[in-house]
Amino acid sequence: MDDSQWEFLEELLETPSPSGYETRGQRVWIDYVERFADEVRTDDYGNAVATYRGVDDGPTIAFAGHADEIGYAVRRIDDDGFVHLAGIGGVDRTVSQGQHVTIHTADGPVQGVVGQTATHLRDGDEDAEPPAIEKQTVDIGAADGEEARRAVEVGDPITFSTTVERLLGSRVAGRALDNQVGTWAAAEGLRRAADSGVHATVHAVSTVQEELGTWGAEMVGNQLDLDAAIVVDVTHTGDYPGAKTEKVGDISLGAGPVVSRGSANHPVLAQAVRKAAADADIDVQLQVDASHTGTDARAFFVAQGGTPTLNLGVPNRYMHTPVEVVDTGDVDAVADLLAAFAEQASDYDSFAVDV
Questions:
Q1: Do residues 206 and 56 make contact, with C-beta atoms less than 8 angstroms apart?
Q2: 97: number of Cβ within 10 Å
Q3: Which end of the chain is more exposed for a tag (fewer CB within 10 A), N or C?
Q4: Apex CA 134: angle with CA 215 and CA 68, to 5°?
C-alpha cells in the first residue's frame, strides 16, 4: 500500500458514514475511482458503481464493499439537555459509555460524551449489566433542553469521535474499518484490473445500508447483469485473548484474505478465486459460512435469478467497537486477489455448477 493508497483509506476512515447517512463517505470514494473508471454512477439511495469496460465478449464481474458503518442517532432531547440514543446497526452497549462522540448536524459537528456513572457510585449489578442503548445519553454540555434543541435535532446521526491510528508494523486500529476496508479494496481491485487491461468488464460497487439488512446490495444486485460478484467485508479472527475460535475458526491477522465456503458462497467461484490466489502467490485462509452469511453476499447471490457470489473476508479484531484492528497487508492482498481473479475470469465459460 503506497502513500496515495493509504491516504485514500485514511480519508475513508475519517469520513463519517453511518447507515442511512453515507453521502459524505460515498463522495470520497467516487472522487477516487473517477480517476481510472470509464464510468461512475449513483442511484437514488447513494449506492455507487464505478465501471471498467472490458472486451465485448468478456464476462461481467463486480467487486463490492459496503460504505456504511454502525453508529447512533438522536432519539429525543430531554428538558435537561441530554440527548437520548437510538442505535444504527449492530451497536454494542458494552463499549459506548465513557466515549467521545460527534453528532453530525446540518450546521456542522457537535461534540459530546456518552455519560458513565463513576465507578465509586455504581452498584455491582450495574457493572454486570450495562444499560441498553436506549437508556444511554449524550452530554453535549447544554444547560437545558432549549439550548440542546438549538444545537441538534431528532434524527441527527452520531459516530464515535475516534478515527484511525497506526499500531506496530502494518496494523491499524479505528472505527469504521467495517467496512471501509471493503470499499477501499473494491476500488483498488478495479484500479489494478484496469491497469492490467483485463478482458472482463469490472464494476466496483460501494453499497449503502448493509448494516441495516443489506438493502443497498439488494438494490444494486438487481441493477447489474453479472456473471459473478465478489463481496469484500471484514470477518472475525481467532487470534487474540478471549476470541471464540469455536465460532470463527483459526483466522489470523496478517495471514491473508479469507475465502468463505458454504451457503451463499458459490463453490465454482470460490475455487476460481483460490486458483487465482495460488497463481499470484497470495496466501488465503478458509472460513465456513455453514448456513448463511451476514454480508452483502446474501443479497447479491439471489439477484437476477441467482448470481455466483463469494464473500471474501478481511481479518478484523474487535468488530463493531471503536477500536477495530486490521493488518493493511491483508487489505492490500485482497485488492491484489481481486485483480488476479479479474485477469483469469475470461478463462471460464460459466461459473455455473455442473449438475
A1: no
A2: 15
A3: C
A4: 30
Q: 61: which strand partners?
A: 202, 228
Q: Is the peptide bond before 179 cis (omega within 30 degrees of 0)?
A: yes
Q: Is the confidence at residue 23, as pLDDT, over 80? A: yes
Chain-centre distance of CA 213, in angstroms? 13
Domain 72-160 CATH superfamily: Peptidase M42, domain 2 (2.40.30.40)
Q: What is the pLDDT of residue 163?
A: 85
- Please give the grid coordinates belonging to residue 58: 468478456
* pLDDT over threshold 90, residue 117: no
How far apart, in whole angstroms, are the C-alpha atoms of residue 346 and residue 276? 12
Residue at 10: amino acid letter: E
Q: In which residue are the cell numbers 459509555 written? A: 97
Query: What are the E-state strand segments in 181-223?
Result: 201-207
Residue 124 has pLDDT above 80, yes or no: no
Global confidence as pTM:
0.96
Condensed to tens digits (0 to 9), the pLDDT of residues 83-95 reads 999 999 999 999 9
Q: How far apart are CA 181 and CA 196, in angstroms?
A: 22
Residues 259/248, Cβ–Cβ less than 8 Å: no
d(CA 79, CA 275) in angstroms, rounded, equals 62
Tens-place pLDDT, residues 271-289: 999 999 999 999 999 999 9
- 3-69+175-347 CATH choice from 3.40.605.10, 1.10.287.180, 3.40.630.10, 1.10.10.10: 3.40.630.10
The residues near 208 (Cβ < 8 Å, ≥ 6 apart) are 19, 20, 22, 26, 45, 46, 47, 66, 67, 68, 215, 216
pLDDT value, residue 122: 83
pLDDT of residue 127 exceeding 80: no
Parse the chain into domains and list their residue ranges.
Answer: 3-69+175-347, 72-160
Q: Residue 130: what pLDDT?
A: 87
